User: Fold this.
Amino acid sequence: MIVNLLIPISLVLLMVIVGTGLQLKQFESILRSPVPLLGGTLLQILLLPAGALVIIYLLKPPLELAAGLLLVSACPGGAISNFYCHFGRLNVALSVMMTAVSSILAFIVLPIVLAAVFPMVITVHEMEVPVGELIFRLFFLLLLPVGVGMLIRKYFVQTVERYGQMMQIVGLKLLILVLVLIFYSQWEDATRLVYDAAVLSFIFTLFALCMANCYSGGSRQLK
Assistant:
């Protein structure tokens, strides 16, 4: 129970920290040139499930890992990815908007992807998208805390700039806490499948990075 409470609280604090590094003009800039947002979202929706399916056929992992990988590949981007971008000094505004757009599209896309891809690996009689939970997570774990962080930056800009490095350290500690709590809550399965899960995660992450790098390079050439 405590773990289930600490994880969302930590995520909310992380997103507040992410919001302190954002300004409204960054979102306006992305909307004026929406190709990276639309292209990145389409790649996530179409190619990640396809890549997951190929990896599963090649490696033949345990059934529960195969199901997990397919679900991860088909689900919208998570809020925690925005902190990775914030910590790496990447385009956080683009990351936040991709998370929001992919979450909205998940209401339509997720059932289609699961209906088309899941039967190739796993027999599924019925699969429902948790619409209410997705809306809750999108608003309370992403949009609201990021908005609060942006307001803090707007009205206390000098304080944010003065303690920016400290907030980075706090955010990193919160991220480690979230990962530890998730691992703890899945302790039995994590230890039983740790090797297969590590290999599968590494290969899928490498595929996603290569896909993103290729798209990023192509986008720069088009400009």
Observations:
- The chain has one domain: 2-222.
- The two ends are 50 Å apart (CA to CA).
